[in-house]
Amino acid sequence: MKNQRGFLTLDAAITLGAYLLIGTLFLGTLIPTLSSYQDSVAISQHVETLTQAAKTAYKHDTLTRRCLSSTRQVSIAGLLRDKQLKAGDYQQYTVSFSFMHHPYPVPKHVKVTVTFANTHDKNRVSRYLDYQAETDTSLTFITPINPPLYGFEYLDPATGCYQ
Question: What predicted TM-score, i.e. pTM, was given to this entire model?
Fold first, then answer.
């Protein structure tokens, strides 16, 4: 029998080509998914950072004024100015309080809204995020502010300030 040359090389080339084709198709679908997931993790971390900074600002305001009641709104510029937040890329974010007004105004929730350039960008990352409200180009994350569970015996019920 004669030795056949080239058959093994052709078989290996076909197999390698098939693996490269399958790998390219697999990576072509995996990379955009991983990119979307990575963007959603970054958004989630920014939302958590902004929420914690807003809660800290309210606690600081409560300690300095000795009042639970507050109508003071929070903003990213104010958090940066008061050094409650480190400098970063917060252009697409807004942060605010929602208030409960019975019997005196008290922040009840921190609302962080992320605004996207278009609906496609929002839809690309929204499936990985746990948001409470959405519009065409924004997602809103709402986190409750838990009031302190102590010291209510020293609280003036009419004003919300400590005596």
Answer: 0.77
How many other CB atoms are there within 10 angstroms of residue 23's CB atom? Answer: 10
Amino acid type, 117: A
d(CA 142, CA 151): 26
Confidence of residue 145 (pLDDT cuts 50, 70, 90): confident
Residues 141/115, Cβ–Cβ less than 8 Å = no
Helix boundaries (H) for the chain: 7-65, 76-81, 119-126
Q: Are 19 and 104 in contact (CB under 8 A)?
A: no
Tokens of 54: 């807003």
Alpha-carbon span 52 to 161, nearest angstrom:
23
